[in-house]
Amino acid sequence: MTTVSTELVRTLERLDVEYLFGYPGGRAIELLEALAESTIEVVRPRDEREASVMAEMHGRLHRKPGVLTGQGPWIGSIGAIGQLEARLGSSPMVVLTEASERGEYSTLAPYQQARGDYGGFALPKILDGIAKEWWFPRTAKETLRTTQLAFKHATAGRPGPTAVILDGDAVTAEIPETDEPPTLWPPEEQVRNWESRPTESDVERAGEHLATAERSAIIAGNGVHAAGAYDELEAVAERYEAVVTTSYLGKSTIAETHPLAAGVIGSFGHEGANRAVSEADTLLVVGCRLNPMDTNWGAASFVRPDEQTIIHADIDSRNAGWVYPADVGLIGDAKRGLSALDRAAEAYAPGNDWARERARDARESFRVAECDSDAEPIKPQRAVTAIDGIVDENTLVTADSGNNRFWLLNYLQTPARRTYFGSGGVGGMGWGGPAAVSAAITTDRDVVAVAGDGGFAMTMTCVETAVEYGVAPTFVVLNDTGLGMVRQMDDSIPGVEFHDTDFVRVAEGFGAEGTRVRSPANLDETLATAKAADVPTVVDVRIDPDEEMAEKLQSSFYESVGGLHE
Description:
Layout: E1 2-3, H1 4-14, E2 19-22, H2 28-34, E3 41-43, H3 48-62, E4 66-69, H4 72-75, H5 80-89, E5 93-98, H6 123-128, E6 133-135, H7 140-155, E7 161-166, H8 168-172, E8 174-175, H9 187-190, H10 200-212, E9 216-220, H11 222-227, H12 230-240, E10 242-246, E11 261-264, H13 271-279, E12 282-286, E13 309-314, E14 328-331, H14 334-344, H15 354-362, H16 380-390, E15 395-399, H17 403-411, E16 420-422, H18 432-442, E17 446-452, H19 453-458, H20 462-468, E18 474-479, H21 484-489, H22 503-509, E19 513-517, H23 523-532, E20 537-542, H24 549-553, H25 556-560
Parallel strand pairs: 2-3, 2-4, 4-5, 5-7, 6-7, 9-10, 9-12, 10-11, 12-13, 13-14, 15-16, 15-17, 17-18, 18-20, 19-20
Antiparallel strand pairs: 1-8
């Protein structure tokens, strides 16, 4: 006989789970107790919010489910931020939580009770609004089976978060040795998924459109990251001589130094990339739903279905042709779809210089005069140029939400694939720091986290987690002592000014190092030293609060529809 909690751990091990992110509490403690003798490393940050971000980043980075655990009331509240990002950003995640049941006391003026009875609250309803799928099993076999299904559905089709709400009695129950029906199958077999691919006729039609186009452009989204379709993306771009632009979440699906790379499209994207999409006669959209920011809020002169041929490749048929009517839909995994397009082009004879010339011109958007400014306070463009100087092919950058991510989007030119990850599913502040710690713990890469002072302060306890787990990411705070994006919308809004927190002392209090930079003269050297340090280092970069992000970065297409919609 063995208990459910012990068998849950065996299931995780058999599914090659290496890390579990969580915080002890409620009946999740039984699961954590069973992990004490496991090879799975438990990463315990300072709260469930940071744990949820770390699990989401793990799923996004490694393309297999990040596992999150903790007590139900907190997983369903502060722990929702990473789950929301996973849902809207298509990151695989499995959440193992509980409903804080108190047995026969659960209906007696209950405390923390989350199963939805009178007097408590309904965790299932919360998770129903976030997760792709969720389960509330009540028996031993149900618990193990639904955990298997959670892993299956987290990666089936478009990835996302799934959840199992562990019943207290079931977690500690013993599993009968007799193989009574229904049969519990081995987890390796139960979680198996099969890849989808577009039909041959759709591939043939799409290939003909691209082969006969005079000006082809690709919009690569997060689906290329999710499928690991980097070689295939470059092969199709080179085969059909197409400019490659990306969505925000698709940034670094291609090295932005590649001869066909044009940068990021959208309302605060690169003007050159936006122009390339507008000028194209044929668009191949891969793994991108085309949200309002991507489309410059529907600017009529940007994407024009009546004048342009649109080929939309997506793993979810609901997404293809969702925002703009598509001439051809390629339904399936981006890797499979792009591979098929590459093979369909074997008879295509290159001979069009438009793409390389257009991409070369578009890449000029990565530099502006402010990137070399010696002004104090430091121009944010200059700060990002310094960050760009320490980012190489082995460095991962995590970007928080707010003005900082748009400065990064424009002036950090990623030198290699899969080097940039940003909060862009739900776009919550406080994401960048914990995401960086997760990446540092689970890879051997150098990691640089970039956030504004507002977002950094929300989750700065992640610096202590980095110290505890012996990793050394660099935390760059673009500090304008305020809620920059909101303040620049309207500085009369209450609450947009922040107390000037001493992040150097905060870092030192956590056992890390900290330094403040006010002048461009020592910015580059300070960042290089911080990145080379063997302990986490916080670099507090004082940027010019009056450098208007929207004024400097909004695209001409976005301006045409009236400006700031954030």
